Amino acid sequence: MVQAIENCQDLVAQIDTLGVAATVKAHRKPPLMSRILRELYELYHDQDRYLAFLAHYPLIPSDLADQIASQLDPEKVEIASGLAGNPRCPQQALNRLVHHPAIVVRQALAANPNLTPKEFQAMVEDENTFVRAALAQNSSLPNPLQFLLADDPASAVRIALSTRKNLDLDVALQLAQSQHSLVSAAVILNYTLDDELLQLWAEQDQAKQQLLLLKRQKSVPMTALQSLGFSPHGLVARTAFQRSGLNGPTMLYLSQSQDTRDRIFLAEQSDLPASIQRRLAQDSAERVRRRLAANHSIHESIALHIVASNDLGACRALAKNPATSDRALRALCQHPDDGIALLIAYRDDLQPEHLDLLINHRSSCCVVEHLAYQGISYLATSAEKTEQLTKHASPTVRAFAAQAANISAANRNQLMHDPSAQVRKQLALNPQLSEHQLRGLRNDSEREVVFAAESNFAARIRQQSQAEANAQPAVPVTSSATRKSALFNTITSFFSD
User: Does the pTM of the predicted model rise above 0.85?
Assistant: First the structure.
């Protein structure tokens, strides 16, 4: 916590401890008493540290600031720059600093809003670019001088002028036409005074200006966005449509556009009506059809139309689309192209019905090979397909066939002697093995095959024991209450006799 200043010595001690900038910041509110400031000047006017504090302190008495400026050595740049930017510095003191040899002093002066038109006029012609740029951002700069700075040869000055909050309308128009892209960008991105000027830029059909309007972080009026939608430049129009939203007539207009990029843009939009999707599904450009097939909002009827059209590019995009419906996936599983079916085989949302179509209803073993390599377990492989897979050259595929519930006895006998332990192990786990076959695998040369067969054999014993237990007749159970009641009746009968 900053110590309260009661006298000049307290202030001196704090400046020595915190430094000039921190002490100035600490005493903006509440302000220091003028008496203490004057006493500091009287006692320490020959020490630059304390003069620098007075020069930078924004609540210094004006007469004291003028007194410091009148006696200031031009070489003491820190003190001069503090006075130049001080809002309490009087006009006569500011006028003395207009031609100060140090650029940092003139730059601080150029940002001071208390300059008179005379100082502004003098500084517009300053030789240093940074001084003129600081002047261009001064909120008190007269409008006529804005026109002078708008023609400044340095682009940094014109960019600084472009970011003014009270930029003159005609100056803004002039800067927007600048050949220097950074200047035109600065004014279009920052201008906020008149929406009519934004509308004018939207209607001028100049691609650079229109794209800059769409890059503004500040809101663009809806009327300007609508005008941008009619731009002859496709990128401008599409971006404007993206910002303002698409309605029915706009969608129809884009679907009929001669520019393929417009139709691609439309095909990527969400919540497209089925009528528009149908037009796009029949588009002459393959890229349009592919983008539609990849759209997460594609209608099921349109997806089925794409599958039936045998459009390979669109079918591939549809197979990779995570939003494709189960019905469309079933149709893709039966697609004659193995490449399409392979894309389905690598999806994470496959149901048993999809696996059935991919495995049992395709003549080629290509898809089954990939399913086997993924380690997918499927027991409902048909007997015909199992017969085909048991003769496959790959041990992984033969192991996939060995787990099938419909595997024939002949195929089981064949796989019992398979050279791959992986195949024999998978067969040893099959519940359909006969006892003779299971005993044969329990004597296999590979321990992992023996362990699998032992596990299968133990599971059968447990299943058989459970079945026998369930088949035994129930034994009547006599409760303790019933036994007590019978004993009581017997005793009663004995005594009655």
Answer: no
